[in-house]
Amino acid sequence: MMFPIRCFSCGALIADKWEEYKARVEAGENAGKVLDELKVKRYCCRRMFISGVDVFNEIVEFYTRYSQYGTG
Amino acid sequence: MERLVIVESGGDEWIRVELRDVPVAIANGIRRMILREVPTMAVEEVLIIENSSAMPNEILAHRISLIPFVSDMDNYNLPEHCSCQSKLGCEKCVVRYVLRAEAGDAPITVYSRDMTPENPETTVKPVSGNIPITMLAPGQRIELELYVRLGQGKKHTKWQAGIATLYEEDGKNLLYIESFGFLPAKRMLKEAVNILRRKVDDMISECEVLFADAKEAS
Prior knowledge:
heterodimer; A: 72 residues; B: 218 residues; alpha+beta; Gyrase A, domain 2; RNA Polymerase Alpha Subunit, Chain A, domain 2; 4-stranded antiparallel beta sheet
């Protein structure tokens, strides 16, 4: 699914930092450094980011193509 | 001598407090009040008018409910203590929001900033506008009505005001308080102390009633 709104363990808000994290890491920056700069300091929150996978993107992509071919 | 001394502070986000001459049991009481009792605001009810997105209603509502709202606990009441006693709520216990989004030719991401309050002047608003709620493929649409209410962490963690940890370092008792954005960290401490005091006061008056009965019986 999409990236979680809160950290599973401590409950801190993390979703607002996800897009910046993802963009910067995909641009080649060091993930740990980006998390430090985003002030994500506890390891419970940090693992949410480093293990985060956006599966929902693929579902949306499927529906996008599905609608292009007429039925959706 | 001051009992609570702020030794370190990160603005409204977090504070580190040294507890001088405060029994550990009471310090722990304060810590637990922050986790369970300090009232904050979050979406409690979601009315789904339309949801043709790929995300099921329950997951969408759950994601929205976890968004912290800047809380105004001075002007709002907990729904269970509100004088209106209405299931729908009144202007003293509910803030209404609407979330409407539709994808055109390209897929879009719906953010927390897309939620529009019924009263544009309200101070109760999402802590951050950059929280992705869902994604919509072309032709998909969501239309939701959201009811933001005051609540406590003991009922649902979405209302947990922040993090509080009590620990000992170099013989000092320290309390670390971090806010999730609902309230400034200092305000959380103040409210926690007030709630704890109110609880003790209630217990004392209950005891007095109990002892009065005991006297009559004897």
